[in-house]
Amino acid sequence: MPLPDGWEARLQFVKRYGKLDVFYFDWYSIALSKILRGSQRDSLDVQLMQRQGCIALEELDYLFQNVLDKLASPAYRRRYPNLSRERLQQRYEAFRLLLQSS
Fold first, then answer.
1. Per the database record, which ranges form the DUF6036 domain (predicted)?
2. How far apart are CA 100 and CA 83, in angstroms?
3. Cα(82)–Cα(35) distance, rounded to whole angstroms?
4. Contacts of 92 (CB under 8 A, 6+ apart)
């Protein structure tokens, strides 16, 4: 799945270990990939991210649309030939309803 714009800015620094900097990856990118995968465990993880304030629905909606727009371009369709915009849209809509109710 293409990463949504601005993912680098949403990395969260955790700690430096010697010469190694450790970051949490972009929560929104993680949530979108879990929504695409669509397992029950992934659903619970995304709900937990929302409850803990790691993601906000409005921003998730915006970034989902960003990814969906990318998948409309021929370059991204060639790069992700097995990723269906329709399947992603269906899964997102189902997860969105679930997240709204939690």
1. 2-84
2. 25
3. 16
4. 32, 35, 64
Element holding 38 (H helix, E strand): none
What does residue 67 show for φ and ψ, rounded to 5 degrees? Answer: -65, -45
Q: How many CB atoms lie within 10 A of CB 34?
A: 19
Domain residues of the chain, as ranges?
27-101
Per-residue pLDDT of the chain (102 residues; tens, 9 = 90+): 999 999 999 999 999 999 999 999 999 999 999 999 989 999 999 999 999 999 999 999 999 999 999 999 999 989 999 998 998 999 999 998 887 776
What CA–CA distance (Å, rounded) separates 67 from 3? Answer: 7
Distance CA(25)–CA(3), nearest Å, equals 11
Quick one: pLDDT at residue 102?
65
What is the sign of the dihedral through the CA atoms of 68, 52, 41 and 12? positive
